[in-house]
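Structure (tokenized):
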């Protein structure tokens, strides 16, 4: 039984059926509160900006019928009993239960804020788009990743938008003050009015601020973070802290009940990112199907990308690393460029890059693989490394090419060998490049390499 049909719950279903395609080991029931099939929530900012008509579906059209899944969408779970899940559609028995309930918006204690629109799911996005008419004034509360994406998306729809953040700089979970300054300047150039160190006091059709002033706005979008959805587990007596506590087997304190994704709390997972949930889904699928009884989840190396047209931003690791002694940094607010790499010896352990895509690609590669960086520190900072370093043919098989859908180079090579011998076919087979589009050049480069070289020599090692 999988409770939750968001990005992580859907990935678990897919991973289980990859290992058990005919349902011989695992019979699957899915309960999801949203009536619509699972979609890529990461792409909501692209939908808001008008770059996609809707978020990309995560499963094939006939997934439930073809995979033999009992899919109960538009149904809410109400309680966990002894071997039974109570739902708004009746009681459903289970042997193993997986909680993939995700998270809910965190609303600050501001009077009237519940009248604003959260930026969390596709329904929210559609409500915002419906109200985003030219000339309408929007206030976006929250200068984290989602708030910045929402503000940029609205600016692309020719509305007046002010981004209000209570911290001294934007995206403080990923950026240091220098990077925050460059990001704010980039958003300002793209039509977003940025207000920092500004605290909201009340929303009543205008945004009242703590200093007594009022920000004129017709609509309010709230992007002030999320909280793990733990109510179902807590009511069942399962141990909960910030999230549902799980071990390396993704097991909770209750036998045969697991948790993955945003609702789960694991020592090695950074909250608020989809990649840890997808990696957890693969591990749990190995365990539930018996494909690999020794599988364990030990953590995820966080990589963040801002999906906002005109702002190329990537960050890895924790921003605290950028306060260390061994940090390479380049700051150009006027040019919209910034790069900071935190080093431990010859390893990249953290960093953030804005407006320098070659540096960003290099940073992510060395952070992901843990490979020793070259001694040319200036070349590393500016992305001026030998071509062999970023040659698609030399990427390790485990390197993630598309972060929107977590597609590795190995998956692309496998799809190519199975007959997807064009960029369009690779996109259809793996969904790589169907998200924000930042991986398109790499996908094209891999396709060119596969078309002209025999990949067999790297099959055992790199791919």
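Design, position by position:
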């Amino acid at each position: 039984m999988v409770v939750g049909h968001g990005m992580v719950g859907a990935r678990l279903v897919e991973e289980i059926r990859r290992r058990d395609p005919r349902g011989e080991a695992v019979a699957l029931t899915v309960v999801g509160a949203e009536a619509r099939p699972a979609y890529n929530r990461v792409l909501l900012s692209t939908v808001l900006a008008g770059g996609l008509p809707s978020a990309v579906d995560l499963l094939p059209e006939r997934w439930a019928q073809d995979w033999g899944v009992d899919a109960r969408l538009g149904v809410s779970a109400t309680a966990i009993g002894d071997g039974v899940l109570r739902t708004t559609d009746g009681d459903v028995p289970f042997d193993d239960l997986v909680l993939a309930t995700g998270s809910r918006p965190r609303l600050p204690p501001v009077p009237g804020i519940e009248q604003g629109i959260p930026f969390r799911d596709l329904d929210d996005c559609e409500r915002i788009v419906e109200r985003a008419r030219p000339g309408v004034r929007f206030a976006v509360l929250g200068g984290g990743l989602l708030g910045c994406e929402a503000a940029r998306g609205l600016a692309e729809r020719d509305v007046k938008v002010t981004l209000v953040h209570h911290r001294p700089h934007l995206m403080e979970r990923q950026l240091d003050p220098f990077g925050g300054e460059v990001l704010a300047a980039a958003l300002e150039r793209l039509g977003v009015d940025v207000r920092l160190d500004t605290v909201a006091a009340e929303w009543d059709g205008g945004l009242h601020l703590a200093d007594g002033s009022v920000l004129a706005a017709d609509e309010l979008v709230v992007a002030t973070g999320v909280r793990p959805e733990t109510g179902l587990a807590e009511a069942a007596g399962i141990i909960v802290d910030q999230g549902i506590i799980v071990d390396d087997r993704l097991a909770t304190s209750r036998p045969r009940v697991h948790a993955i994704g945003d609702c789960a709390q694991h020592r090695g997972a950074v909250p608020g990112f989809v990649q840890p949930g997808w990696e957890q889904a693969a591990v749990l699928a190995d365990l539930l199907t018996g494909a690999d009884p020794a599988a364990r989840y030990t953590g995820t190396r966080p990589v963040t990308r801002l999906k906002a047209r005109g702002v190329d931003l990537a960050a890895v690791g924790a921003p605290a690393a950028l306060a260390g002694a061994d940090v390479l940094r380049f700051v150009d607010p006027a040019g919209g460029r910034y790069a900071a790499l935190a080093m431990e010896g010859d390893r990249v352990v953290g960093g953030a890059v804005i407006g320098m895509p070659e540096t960003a690609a290099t940073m992510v590669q060395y952070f992901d693989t843990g490979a020793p960086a070259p001694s040319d520190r200036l070349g590393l900072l500016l992305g001026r490394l030998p071509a062999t370093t970023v040659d698609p043919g030399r990427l390790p098989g485990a390197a993630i090419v598309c972060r929107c859908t977590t597609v590795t180079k190995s998956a692309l090579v496998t799809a190519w060998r199975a007959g997807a011998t064009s960029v369009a076919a690779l996109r259809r087979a793996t969904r790589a490049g169907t998200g924000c589009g930042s991986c398109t050049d790499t996908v094209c480069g891999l396709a060119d390499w596969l078309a002209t070289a025999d990949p067999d020599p790297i099959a055992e090692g790199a791919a």
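Reviewer-requested clarification: The first strand starts at residue 2 and ends at 3. Residues 457-463 have pLDDT under 50 and may be disordered.
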